[in-house]
Design brief:
alpha/beta
Amino acid sequence: MGDVNTCIVHQPEQESLLALDVIAGRYARAVGTGLQAAATVEVDRIACVRRKLAFTPKPWDLAHLRKLLAEKESRVFAPALTNTSKPRKPGAEKPEYDVRMETVYLEGLRRIIARVESGGPILPPTELHGIRLGPIALLGTPCEVFQAIKNDLKAAARSPLPLVLSTTNDGVGYAPDRAAAARGGYAADIVPLILSRPPLADAHGELLRGLVALDAALQ
């Protein structure tokens, strides 16, 4: 999850199937290694905690959202971008792919604008979910969590064995670390729009604080 999956599986079918074979092999080896090294732990307590988490979006107001929507609409409905267009250069994606992706962003922006215009939040709250089994703390997040955030949580957690889980009880896209967020791009800026959400202002800091509090509540 997050930034640790180095195989891309949304390419043409044959490439994706080959990548899935690689991922399946890695997964099987990891499970096999875990089973061989498994040790018994004493479960002297069980606890469960759920917490709401309201991420802070980037400061996008309705005027900015409408401006972005107008830009997307102008590209989607531009006469030059048709399904008969040729690739821009050898190996490049075809313009019809651009039209499809711009349409995805357009629909995401329309949903965000409709939500705000109806009195809803620009970014709905989501949920963190923690389960304590003896020394093990399963800390569930709705995000695909980047590894640097997990490392920071492991250093700050009070539980002996904290394990951060991705896409638990909800699916709100990536939680990029600060370095990835500063670069922008697919994980930080594009996926939120695909999911009808504005980009996050500080996914790293807010998710880390939420997970630390969740872990503390399980003690």
